[in-house]
């Protein structure tokens, strides 16, 4: 009777409970068991367990109970029971008399877990980015359809693979170091190149992050986005930009050569008409002009590294005067008056032809900025070991927002401009370790200030 008392208690516990004897005959079946298994106690009591529940034969539950009995060990497991569409959490304890089984309905928790899992699975499965996971050795564990599409392999093929052969050879070392870092817990973002199954190369943007389960890093997740098209467009753009640049450079070179050629032609004409004594001046200017052409054709010298012998002692005032003489015919044509005032100037170690070119570029812009004529004021002075040249015009000025762009190659607002004049000028000034400043004057013109150090000897070593 003691046994029965015990069973009465078991009737009231919230767990489902049943017991079988050594012959698998059911000796007890509590209320909760009736409810969960949808059987009435009288129906199953004293029945052979496997007759009462034939659906269980040879299933996991069948194996577990036999294990408990044969090995005399308790077993704990979760099982799905199709007749009731339920999940149970089972604990079975063997004893001398048979087997006692306790179980609970865990269907709700299971559903929730499944739902949650499905949520994640959906994120994985339907992600437009390729998503994949690796074990810590870099073997694929799973890949999503976007990954299959990106690389051309099926998930089954992937899971027999390591990432290694998919990354192009030059990139393996780099990718390996990112993978290692991700495997130690640091998320990594990088770009690399991979080979599609068909042999084509793809540019991908990859993220690698650790998979952390219960505080332990167990693998690495990856996402990849195909950026091949972006990369190719970028390359094409760069190439076409280069071509345009070459075209513009050619135009500018032609343009820069045409100017001195025009003045050579002009002076030759003048010499033809004039008497012998003024020819001396013309000849000097002519030879200077010819050497300027030589310079430009040689290469855009300013863009190359200057040579030591290029630096010579010269008079900046004289250089400026030559330039003014040179440009005066053009100034006259546009009714532009050039006024200049020079202070006492020391000789300067410089590349004479380059300074000349810089002054020409500035004066030409000034004239072009005054299509209806005006004045250009030039001052050149000696201030604290520097020669300071200021060229001011009364032209259209430069809008504030584009001021910072002046001097970048090919930036022009003129229909037939090359946008190389100011770039070249800035470069020349830099070569001379000087400073270049372009500002708007209060009366709407433009002012350019150039300063050149006179003690270039001291900095010469730096340049060459
Ligand atoms: P380009 O003369 O071929 O346009 P530059 O490099 O010489 O090329 O000049 C670049 C641009 O700077 C010009 O197109 C013009 O917009 C602006 N600029 C330069 N100097 C002046 C100036 N004195 N007055 C107004 N704008 C100027
Ligand atoms: Mg110009």
Task: List its salient traits.
464 residues, alpha+beta, Beta-Lactamase, Helix Hairpins, 4 domains, 5-stranded antiparallel β-sheet, 16 helices, 17 strands, 45% helix, 26% strand, disordered C terminus, binds adenosine-5'-diphosphate, binds magnesium ion
Q: Would you give an account of this structure?
A:
- The protein is of the alpha+beta class and 464 residues long.
- It has 4 domains: 2-110, Beta-Lactamase; 127-226, 2-Layer Sandwich (Beta-Lactamase); 231-304, Signal transduction histidine kinase, dimerisation/phosphotransfer (DHp) domain (Helix Hairpins, Orthogonal Bundle); 312-461, Histidine kinase-like ATPase, C-terminal domain (Heat Shock Protein 90), CATH 3.30.565.10.
- Helix content is 45%, strand content 26%.
- It is built from 16 helices and 17 strands.
- It has helices at 2-12, 31-37, 41-44, 49-52, 60-71, 107-125, 145-151, 155-158, 172-183, 228-273, 276-298, 316-333, 352-368, 400-403, 421-431, 456-463; strands at 16-21, 26-29, 75-81, 86-95, 98-105, 130-135, 140-143, 188-195, 201-213, 216-226, 312-314, 336-342, 348-350, 374-383, 386-393, 435-440, 446-453.
- A hairpin with a 5-residue loop joins strand 16 and strand 17 (446-453).
- Helix 10 runs antiparallel to helix 11 (276-298) and helix 13 packs antiparallel against helix 15 (421-431).
- The termini are far apart.
- The site of magnesium ion has 4 residues, from helix 13.
């Amino acid at each position: 009777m003691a046994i029965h008392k015990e069973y009465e208690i078991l009737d009231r516990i919230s767990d489902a409970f049943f017991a079988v004897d050594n012959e698998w005959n059911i000796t007890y079946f509590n209320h909760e068991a009736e409810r969960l298994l949808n059987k009435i106690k009288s129906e199953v009591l004293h029945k052979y367990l496997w007759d009462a529940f034939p659906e269980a034969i040879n299933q996991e539950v069948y194996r577990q109970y036999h294990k408990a009995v044969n090995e005399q060990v308790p077993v704990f497991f979760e099982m799905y029971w199709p007749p009731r569409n339920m999940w149970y959490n089972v604990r079975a304890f063997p004893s001398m008399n048979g087997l006692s089984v306790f179980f609970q309905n865990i269907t709700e928790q299971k559903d929730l877990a499944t739902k949650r899992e499905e949520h994640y699975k959906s994120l994985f499965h339907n992600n437009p980015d390729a998503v994949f996971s690796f074990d810590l050795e870099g073997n694929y564990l799973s890949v999503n359809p976007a990954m299959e599409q990106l690389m051309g392999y099926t998930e089954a093929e992937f899971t027999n693979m390591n990432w290694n052969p998919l990354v192009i050879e030059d990139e393996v070392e780099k990718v390996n170091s990112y993978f290692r870092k991700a495997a130690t817990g640091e998320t990594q973002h990088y770009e690399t190149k991979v080979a599609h199954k068909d042999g084509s190369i793809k540019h991908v943007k990859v993220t690698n992050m650790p998979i952390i389960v219960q505080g332990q890093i167990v693998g690495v997740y990856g996402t990849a986005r195909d950026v091949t098209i972006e990369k190719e467009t970028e390359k094409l753009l760069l190439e076409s930009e280069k071509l345009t640049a070459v075209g513009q450079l050619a135009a500018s070179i032609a343009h820069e050569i045409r100017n001195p050629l025009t003045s050579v032609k002009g002076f030759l004409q003048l010499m033809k008409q004039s008497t012998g004594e003024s020819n001396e001046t013309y000849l000097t200017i002519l030879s200077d002009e010819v050497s300027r052409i030589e310079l430009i054709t040689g290469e855009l010298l300013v863009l190359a590294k200057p040579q030591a012998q290029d630096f010579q002692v010269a008079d900046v005032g004289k250089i400026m005067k030559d330039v003014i003489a040179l440009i005066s015919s053009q100034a006259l044509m546009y009714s532009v008056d050039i006024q200049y005032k020079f202070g006492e100037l020391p000789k300067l170690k410089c590349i004479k032809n380059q300074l000349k070119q810089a002054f020409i570029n500035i004066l030409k812009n000034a004239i072009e900025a005054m299509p209806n004529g005006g004045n250009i004021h030039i001052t050149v002075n000696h201030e604290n070991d520097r020669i300071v040249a200021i060229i001011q015009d009364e032209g259209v000025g430069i809008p504030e927002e584009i001021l910072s762009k002046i001097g970048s190659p090919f930036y022009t607002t003129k229909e037939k401009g090359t946008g190389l004049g100011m770039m070249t000028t800035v470069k020349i000034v830099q070569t001379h370790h000087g400073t270049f400043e372009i500002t708007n004057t209060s009366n709407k013109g433009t002012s350019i200030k150039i300063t050149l150090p006179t003690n270039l000897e001291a900095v010469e070593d730096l340049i060459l």
